[in-house]
């Protein structure tokens, strides 16, 4: 599971770095004006709230490690706060990298990550294949970790 965590951080960092590079050199696929960054107040936008909440699930699992902590009353709230901040940061930089590459109207839930890498790099190559394999490994590791809790 530790290896999967490093794979996840590498994938996120690669997406962010490539996104910044492509944004500076070639431009972006979406409009990043403040109007487009704020959600619209309609039923479709509210349906995305469940996805956002789901992305933050799991940070409370740190409470299961209270027996191994010296000061759990202090360390658990710190871990939840730091974890929440890191989760938000990683999701934002990943979303930026994907938004640079793929127009929102063409973003797919099943292939969006690999589509983003292909568009950011310009073609399918060994790096995209490695990212795909790492992503499958990350997903398998996540399932195992949830099953163990």
Core attributes:
single chain
Question: In short, what is this structure?
Answer:
By secondary structure, this protein is mostly helical.
Major beta-sheet overview: none
The residue-averaged pLDDT reads 86
Give the helix level as a range of percent.
55-70%
Shape: globular
Query: Any low-confidence stretches, pLDDT <50, length ≥5?
Result: none
The number of helical elements comes to 7
Strand content: under 5%
**What number of domains?**
1
The secondary-structure class comes to mainly alpha
Task: Describe the model.
This protein has 149 residues and is mainly α. It has one domain (2-30, 44-148). The protein is 69% helix and 0% strand. The chain is built from 7 helices and no strands. Helix 1 (2-25) packs across helix 5 (72-101). It is globular, with a radius of gyration of 17 Å. The model has no long low-confidence stretch (mean pLDDT 86).
Layout of secondary structure:
Elements: H1 2-25, H2 34-37, H3 43-47, H4 49-55, H5 72-101, H6 112-121, H7 126-148
Helix pairs in contact: 1-5, 1-6, 1-7, 5-6
């Amino acid at each position: 599971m530790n290896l999967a965590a490093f794979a996840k951080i590498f994938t996120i960092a690669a997406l962010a770095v490539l996104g910044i590079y492509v944004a500076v050199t070639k431009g972006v696929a979406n409009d990043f004006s403040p109007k487009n960054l704020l959600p619209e107040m309609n039923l479709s936008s509210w349906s995305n709230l469940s996805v956002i909440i789901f992305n933050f699930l799991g940070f409370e699992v740190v409470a299961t490690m209270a027996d191994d902590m010296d000061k759990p009353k202090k360390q658990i709230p710190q871990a939840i706060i730091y974890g929440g901040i890191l989760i938000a940061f990683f999701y934002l930089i990943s979303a930026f990298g994907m938004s640079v590459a793929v127009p929102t109207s063409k973003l797919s839930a099943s292939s969006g990550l690999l589509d983003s890498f292909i568009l950011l790099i310009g073609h399918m190559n060994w790096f995209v294949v490695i990212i795909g394999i790492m992503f499958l490994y990350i997903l398998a590791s996540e399932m195992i970790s949830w099953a163990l809790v």
